[in-house]
Amino acid sequence: MVEATNTRVPVNERADIAARLKEAREYLGISQQRVADVLSIPRTAVSAMENGQRGIDSMELKSLAKLYQRPVAYFTGDEDVAMGADVALLAKQVAKLSEQDKTELLRFTEFLVQRSRSGSRDDNAA
Fold first, then answer.
1. Cβ(32)–Cβ(43) below 8 Å
2. Number of domains in the chain
3. Taking a C-beta distance cutoff of 8 angstroms, is the pair 82, 74 a contact?
4. Alpha helical stretches, state H, the chain
5. Percent of the chain with pLDDT over 70
6. CATH code of the domain in which 22 resides
7. Angle at 86 between CA 40 and CA 55, to 5 degrees
8. Staple 78 to which of 28, 65, 73, 118, CB 3.0 to 4.6 Å?
């Protein structure tokens, strides 16, 4: 859970949230200063969030989720909700593709599925 006024977040949950925040920021190539500017907080506060040394209020988490283009559930670890949101985001992006690109993407996903299946058989054989 996200830290509220009088609520304590277990250290391991805070560390998990912190790691996800840092990973999402770095993946998008956003600087800590940019995040600080968006949240109107000092850059050191962003660093403290990413190191698990500072709690995050719900409004900050909503802003971060929007900035990082991820559902809030991704950061809190609610896997089922996050997975559904990821699929919805993927569908939204696919809708923007040309028909030719959609066909290519479908072929690529079929390749990935086959590769995953053969990889799991190879794992079982070992």
1. yes
2. 1
3. yes
4. 11-28, 32-39, 43-50, 58-68, 72-76, 79-94, 99-125
5. 79
6. 1.10.260.40
7. 35
8. 73
Residue 68: domain span: 1-78
Which is more confidently placed, 86 or 68? 68
Whether 119 is covered by a domain: the verdict is no
Mean pLDDT of 94-119: 90
Q: Is position 18 within any domain?
A: yes
Q: Read off the pLDDT of residues 32-81 as tens digits, 9 standing for 90 and up.
A: 999 999 999 999 999 999 999 999 999 999 999 999 988 888 888 876 55
Residue 110 falls within a domain, yes or no? no
Determine the Cα–Cα distance for residues 89 and 74; give it in Å rounded to an integer: 12
d(C-alpha 122, C-alpha 4), whole Å: 47
Q: How far apart are CA 62 and CA 3, in angstroms?
A: 13
pTM of the model: 0.58
Look over the chain and give the mean of its residue pLDDT values, rounded to a whole number.
83
